[in-house]
Design goal:
CATH class of the largest domain: Mainly Alpha
Structural class: mainly alpha
Number of strands: 10
CATH topology of the largest domain: Glycosyltransferase
Shape: globular
Largest sheet: 2 strands, antiparallel
Length: about 600
């Protein structure tokens, strides 16, 4: 792929520093009414913090170990020590700003729209699932950062500030996890209902009777139903799933569920668990939560011990919900022996709404289990086909026409209605995550599974085309130069960017580059056929070398050359099981030189 993630991330850091820091002051994003927003602030802060915590080569928590090109990119912010101290101030500012009487708040009015109406005060104060999920990722990064940075600090004043900062971050983390537990929902409905009819029409790709299809689906969902019965805390735990004739859907809604029970903890959870009004699981909200739960379960979280005992209990409860949700959507989206329902794009949602954005959200959840499928090799071509189709219909790999409706998928983004929000004022909508970065994120993850296959080559070509599309949308001048998003370069009807850059879009690009960089650092699994080929070549090369040594040619001035050949073969034997292609290269070089010796002897 042509992305060159390290270079691109460093360029983005340079542009973030230029856009946000001047005269020793950090500029936080402001909403239309001039107030700050916990979601926008989190996205902006994570553009710096996320790569620094996820990639060892970008670390800033040990200033004396920071790479030279990293420090050069952030030079406007100061040297390594000054950058780390600035990040401490920004973290503290964020955590203290987004509290109310000492309790964390998770509002995001900039992410909400009431059409021609103004948001009511209650709507502006509503806690959002997106904010819960973002805060999980942000606070884990904060806690991890300060724990490592503390080892570099000797001044007691700064060490005390770090201790206070860790307490604030841990408090917000607990509150965010509780919020996610109270935003999960299981909705049960009759097969004869409109929801049941929609589900039957979605999974029935072979023309069989709906009754037969739904019976088969119920059987396939038995494991998920059993997992959901084990829920004991948070919302979703009181739903009656004992009737096997009823259908169900599970996942997260846009905020705390109406009537969500209080989460009771073994220790003290320092949050007042506010009343919720959200209703119905939403595909887009569920897809937003998955990365946050994975962060809770990551090796970094475990190795650094970022969770206390109570948070580990909450994380286990969230893991159970995530696994049930992903298994549910894998079962529905890949159902049957014919075409997958997911291949029938765009995905249909309740109310008759269809969207490529929904297809991508379902894809994200359904494909988590792909690596464990017995037929994953045969599924690769179908997976690539889905992503290619989404890129085509979204006019990423095809030129959009004048007034193309696909423009709305990108700017302002697919509108997601928020059921239950009318209890607080006019009905609200939010907008799904930026489509093009989300699509490329899926392509990168799938490409890592397909390396060395024909499907993998198609995936890499698709990744390059989507990245070209994204690069074209960088802001060329003005505030936020080099960041995102100016869609006019690819969609003529798109509005000109006004005000600061889109931090949600910019962070999504940063996140996909981090994924690409991490994937590049990971060694691909060795191909068994290459391993076998390397062993066969080694046997022949070892035999030829033994022949040369037995003939005593080393005594005729060729000892240095034979020593070099022997060293290459020794290295090839060490790595042939883990890096067979490199081993084959070493053996081929040795075989060429051994054959030259043989030819020379025949001419003598």
């Amino acid at each position: 792929m042509r992305m060159q993630p390290r270079r691109r991330l460093l360029e983005i850091w340079e542009d973030v520093a230029a856009a946000c820091f001047a005269d020793g002051t950090w500029r936080w994003p402001e909403g239309p009414d001039g107030e700050r927003d916990s979601i926008c602030d989190a996205y902006q802060l994570l553009t710096l913090l996320y790569p620094a915590c996820e990639l060892a080569s970008f670390r800033l928590d040990s200033p004396d170990q920071a790479a030279d090109d990293v420090l050069e990119a952030l030079r406007p912010l100061g040297d390594g020590i000054e950058v780390a101290k600035l990040l401490l101030r920004l973290m503290a500012d964020y955590l203290r700003t987004h509290t109310d009487d000492g309790e964390p708040v998770f509002t995001g009015p900039s992410r909400l729209s009431a059409g021609d109406h103004k948001l009511t005060d209650e709507q502006r104060r509503a806690d959002l699932t997106e904010a819960f999920a973002l805060s999980v990722t942000l606070t884990l990064d904060i806690i991890g950062f300060v724990r490592v940075f503390r080892a570099s600090v000797t001044r007691e004043e700064i060490r005390r500030e770090i201790r206070d900062l860790e307490i604030l971050a841990s408090t917000r983390l607990s509150a965010a996890m509780v919020g996610l537990l109270r935003s999960f929902n299981v909705e049960v409905f009759e097969p004869q209902s409109s929801r049941g009819a929609l589900l039957a029409r979605t999974v029935n790709q072979t023309g069989a009777s709906d009754r037969l299809i739904l019976d088969q689906l119920q059987q396939a969902l038995r494991e998920v139903r059993a997992r959901l019965r084990d829920l004991t805390i948070g919302s979703g735990s009181s739903v009656d799933l004992d009737n096997p004739n009823l259908l169900f859907e599970c996942g997260w809604s846009w905020g705390v569920i109406r009537g969500a029970p209080t989460v009771v903890a073994a220790g003290s959870i320092p949050v007042s668990q506010r009343r919720g009004v959200a209703d119905t699981p939403l595909i887009h909200a569920s897809a937003t939560v998955i990365p946050a739960v994975l962060d809770l379960l990551s090796p970094r979280t475990r190795v650094l011990g970022l969770l206390d005992d109570e948070q580990q209990r909450l994380a286990s409860a969230l893991q159970l919900r995530m696994e049930a949700t992903c298994t549910y959507w894998e079962t529905v989206a890949l159902f049957g022996d014919g075409p997958w329902p997911l291949e029938d794009t765009p995905w249909r949602m309740p109310g008759g709404v269809e969207s490529e954005s929904a297809s991508l959200a379902v894809f994200q959840m359904a494909m988590r289990g792909l690596r464990f499928r017995r037929d994953r090799e045969s599924a690769f071509d179908r997976v690539v086909g889905i992503l290619e189709e989404l890129a085509l219909t979204a006019r990423i790999t095809k030129r959009p026409g004048a007034g193309d409706p696909a423009t709305a998928l990108h700017v302002p983004g697919f509108p997601v209605a928020l059921p239950g929000s009318d209890e607080l004022g006019p009905p609200l909508v939010s907008h799904a995550s930026p489509f093009a970065p989300a699509l490329l994120q899926r392509v990168i993850v799938m490409d890592a599974l397909m390396q060395g296959t024909g499907a993998g080559q198609r995936m890499q070509r698709l990744a390059d085309r989507i990245w070209t599309h994204l690069e074209a949308r960088r802001i060329a001048e003005g505030p936020g130069q080099g960041l995102w998003d100016d869609a006019r370069t690819v969609f003529a009807a798109a509005p000109a960017p006004s005000g600061p850059p889109s931090w949600a879009f910019t962070f999504d690009v940063v996140a996909l580059l981090v994924t690409a960089a991490a994937t590049t650092d990971e060694r691909p699994p060795p191909d068994p056929q290459l391993v076998s080929h390397a062993r066969a070549l080694l046997r022949e090369a070892d035999h030829m070398l033994e022949q040369e040594l037995m003939l005593g040619l080393a005594l005729r001035g060729r000892r240095p050359l034979l020593g070099t050949i022997e060293a290459r073969l020794r290295r090839a034997r060490e790595i042939h099981d883990s890096r067979p292609a490199a081993a084959i290269g070493l053996v081929n070089s040795a075989l060429t030189e051994l054959d030259a010796l043989l030819a020379a002897r025949e001419w003598e």
